[in-house]
Design a protein that fits this description.
single chain; 306 residues; mainly alpha; 3 domains; 3-stranded mixed sheet; two-stranded antiparallel ribbon; 14 helices; 6% strand; flat; ParB_N
Amino acid sequence: MPIASLRAADSPRRGGEDAEHVRLLAEQDAPLPPIVVHRPTMRVIDGMHRLRAAALRGEREIEAVFFDGPRDDAFVLSVGLNSAHGLPLTQADRNAAAERIITTHWHWSDRAIASVAGVSAKTVGALRRRSTGEVPHSNARVGRDGRVRAVDPAVGRRRAGAVLAERPGASLREIAARAGISLSTAKDVRERVRSGQDPLPPRQRGAPRAAPAPTPPCRRPDRDEIDAELRPIVQTLKRDPALRQSEMGRRVLTLLDVHALESAEWDKLAANVPTHCATTVADAARKCAASLQNFASELERRDAPR
């Protein structure tokens, strides 16, 4: 793509590019690796040294890979890529990047932010404690594995107890969704409540606390309605020659057909997942759903008018 069409990076390198590093890259005979560009803003996410080196060589174009996510996610990607390769970030750069990510991705755990910025979780925790009141606070944070964990697990258990008091027959999935806890924790709370015990194990019981604010029900789309709409769509696509007669098309049809199950089939699958790995399967299912959502977004972007 034309070098002139690109904008300078929103870079974690507070001191800008290193001129000597640019010169060394420009003197190499090998082609420069592709840079990463934020498509919505045309800002360079990763590769400013390579961009400067290409310009120094007198080149007018450079190979690039696009990123289409939000600007805050583009900065996180920039930090991660710059921490992983190329000219190392200084400690001051890493700390500043972690401090900024705390403000934009406050729901991430200290370890998750630390793994991106290349600092310790202890450093992130100290930066978070020094952060201003503008940084939101949450009882749950997302870890490096994508799982949501409570900062104070007692709060989630109390909410689960309140859900069971309101709906004694609630399923584990409903309890977990409304209380913001894992399925295994929801199961433990339900067993405790049914046996007349406190939802909290002894080690989590402290001074009496005010009852948590009621958590609104987690609204889910009607599954029967989704299933009824999906199956005819898949059957129509399976008759499309353009999809049936190519390997990639057949893979798309297989992908869609696997998910075109009736509600009873989904219930049967869920009932037969072993308890010891139910949480892991649930996490994998959510990640599959996220991948399908990204796939759908890419198709919609391609189909959008230019």
